[in-house]
Amino acid sequence: MSADYITMTIPKQKRIALIAHDAKKEELIKWCEDNRNILSRHELCGTGTTARMITDRTNLQVKGYNSGPLGGDQQIGAKIVEGRIDFVVFFSDPLTAAPHDPDVKALLRIAQVYDIPMANNKATADFMIQSKLMDEPYDHKVINFQKNIDNRANTLGK
Ligand SMILES: O=C(CO)COP(=O)(O)O
Q1: What residue stretches are annotated with the MGS-like domain (predicted)?
Q2: Ligand 1 pocket test: which of 18, 19, 25, 120 has the largest number of ligand atoms within 8 Å of its C-beta?
């Protein structure tokens, strides 16, 4: 019988998503500048406006998806599901209501489901980026989605 969890590997060169709400964009740009040496060793992407501003201001290459309110958080969530993003730094704004709050919550949830390291503020991002694991592959256990489907189809189909 197959296992409930499978081992996935976050590679040594990580695919990092960078996201900031408007009130936090300056803080994230400064953080990227302060950590440019480390970040430049990894593959970077982000929601549209955040990605563009980081590239403009730091010269780091950041692939941009759609803007957050237009589905960018969901695109990043989908890439996590597909195993194509494995590290997230999201400086979210806890003091401003956003129209796409459900998308933000969905991204948080899917990062939890897939056991993806995710920093929601600068202190967490500092601890994560300084971790020795940034320079190593990291094995972690993720739900065996094939077995999950098999179980559900068998149970619900009865
Ligand atoms: O709203 C965002 C994340 O929820 C960020 O989107 P932008 O990077 O396009 O501003």
Answers
A1: 8-158
A2: 19
The pick from 45, 49, 65, 92 for probing ligand 1's pocket by mutation, whose C-beta has the most ligand atoms within 8 angstroms, reads 49
What residues in the chain have per-residue pLDDT under 70? Answer: 1
Residue 1 lies in a domain: no
- 51-77 pLDDT, tens digit per residue, is 999 999 999 999 999 999 999 999 999
SS3 assignment for the chain: CCCCEEEEEECCCCEEEEEECHHHHHHHHHHHHHCHHHHCCCEEEECHHHHHHHHHHHCCCEEECCCHHHCHHHHHHHHHHCCCCCEEEEECCCCCCCCCHHHHHHHHHHHHHCCCCEECCHHHHHHHHCCHHHHCCEEEEEECHHHHHHHHHHHHCC
CATH number at residue 47: 3.40.50.1380
Q: Is 73 a catalytic residue?
A: yes
